[in-house]
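pasting for ref
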Amino acid sequence: MKTLFASRRGPACGSALAAALLVLVLHGAQGVSQVSVTTYHNDSLRSGQNLHETVLTHSLVNFNTFGKLFAQPVDGQIYAQPLVVSNLQIAGKGKHTVVYVATENDSVYAFDGNSNTGTDATPLWQVSFINPAQGITTVPASDFGTTMISPQIGITGTPVIDISNHTLYVVAATKENGAYYQRLHALDIATGAEKFGGPVVISAVVKGTGANSVKGYVYFDPFRSNQRAALLLVNGFVYIAWASHGFETVYPYHGWIMAYNESTLKLAGAFCITPNGDQGGVWQSGSGPAADTLGNIFFMVGNGTFDADTGGTDYGMSYVKMSSNGGLKVTDYFTPYNQAQESFADLDLGSGGALLFPYQSGSSHPYLGVGAGKDGSLYLVNRQNMGGFNSKQNLIVQQITNAFAGHSVYSSPAYWQGYLYYWATYDTLRIFQLSNGLVGTTPIAMSNYSLASPGATPVISANGTTDGIVWALDTSKSMTSGPAVLHALDAQTALELYNTTQVSTRDQAGNAVKFAIPTVANGKVYVGTTTELDIYGLLP
């Protein structure tokens, strides 16, 4: 395996000249391979990989040739992952690589992703969903008595973009003269204008006798419901999932998932995860529901009522599979045998997000999904037969009970070339190998340092099978108003190539936002913080 100690120290004189020449060549060639990142973690499998990164290579990602290029100020915290559309024509402004940023102040920005000079010093466009003069504001965190997201709540879940119809879909929460609303907006990606008659107020009702039910029905509550998970777009429907703002302050609550037609913005289906009980939020530390190429949707659920094994309709603490025709029918699930004990102990299965592996040729289980949560167990499931619930044992492909040495998972994994990447809380990056349909029980490589809570959700950039780089954000200082730290590591050895503290006077990021993840595309790395979008790349 390739080691990169020299690049961490900085190149010698001769190699420095070669690196400088290579930088010039690559700067001129950046328009050759243009990538768009239109959904959380790069694709609907939630793999986190960009296989078309030709600019950021092992030899160039070091503090001598890579660093912070510029920043763009925003009006609120950026919890949502930045999204990118390349070569987009903006009326009167030509073609741009556009970076989309959503904030807790209920704003969506479109920035040029390569420059902040001249006409690119200001946003290409910006829209706001609040109007304080009319009594329309973001939702104060004090209304919930929680600091999970503070001081305001507006847009939290990562939007999703459909390039084919030039539309960005985003959910915004508002407080309007004392009443609470959540709306689905469909914005033109070139102008920010509302489309398809939007926005639409999100509302739903299902049969149920659980918490907060009224005469046999459970109603979606825009106050209690926290739209934390990223949006998913598949088969013409936008899928949206909810948890809560905090167990203690807004209990009781229900988890929800809904489907909206992407062209009409009409509600196609609504599923309450615990209609005859309570809780069951889809947290996933910001990751969205995943979808495979067969048209199935998968998501992981936190603490909550479970009775699906006895013919009920409550799916707390479960890894759930649904059809993607908008109807939201559960077609399979896996629930750990000790779900009752773990739910009582607040050991959410759904504190982490699901990842679906690409088709595993030659394996007896070619369709696999993986997930992990607070209990520190890694669960590998067969997506064709997930195992349901058995009170004695877990009937799944594989369980690695102590995969993270006792550390909890508040993040999602990434995948590249048969490698699985996890970064649990207070743990090192762990690289596992997937072989013959099983995950190796011992990591093949680990970073030589750990990250405090909440760990990190890694993303991978690579030029196909070469130059794999793991990018991760240390957001552990989000509660103490400290800076985020961007890390880059070799994707095979876990040796560090770069981090933003090496030349902090030049590269320090804005203050950290919990669960934030970077976006890597076209030779740039985009990092959302509390007050700005930071852009990293090859130094001029």
